[in-house]
Amino acid sequence: MHQTKYTTKLLEKFRMSQSNLVGSPCDVGLKLEKNVAYECVDPTTYRKIMGSLRYLCHTRVDLNYNVGAISRFI
């Protein structure tokens, strides 16, 4: 099962289609913390992105750790 079309539409929807490709978005054990120097992110948009990524994790189990790590900031 492939979700290439869903992933492509997801990247276009959140204006990330020009992002750089990486093998793994973050290292295991990476400690994330809030950066107060940047302006706040719209919580509704962040939740939409996280929901879309969670759905994608059903077929892309390699993303589970990374999505789980960033979803702690909801």
Whole-number radius of gyration? 13 Å
In DSSP terms (H or I, runs of 4 or more residues), the helix count works out at: 3
Helix and strand run: HHH
Largest sheet: none
Helix content, binned percent: 40-55%
The secondary-structure class comes to mainly alpha
Strand % is under 5%
- How many separate structural domains? 1
Oligomer kind: single chain
Averaged pLDDT, please? 80
Give an overview in words.
This protein has 74 residues and is mainly alpha-helical. It has one domain. The protein is built from 3 helices and no strands. The longest helix has 14 residues. The N and C termini lie far apart (29 Å).
Helix and strand layout, with pairings?
Elements: H1 4-13, H2 43-56, H3 64-71
Task: Please supply descriptive tags for the structure shown above.
single chain; 74 residues; mainly alpha; 3 helices; 43% helix
Quick structural summary:
This protein is mainly α and 74 residues long.
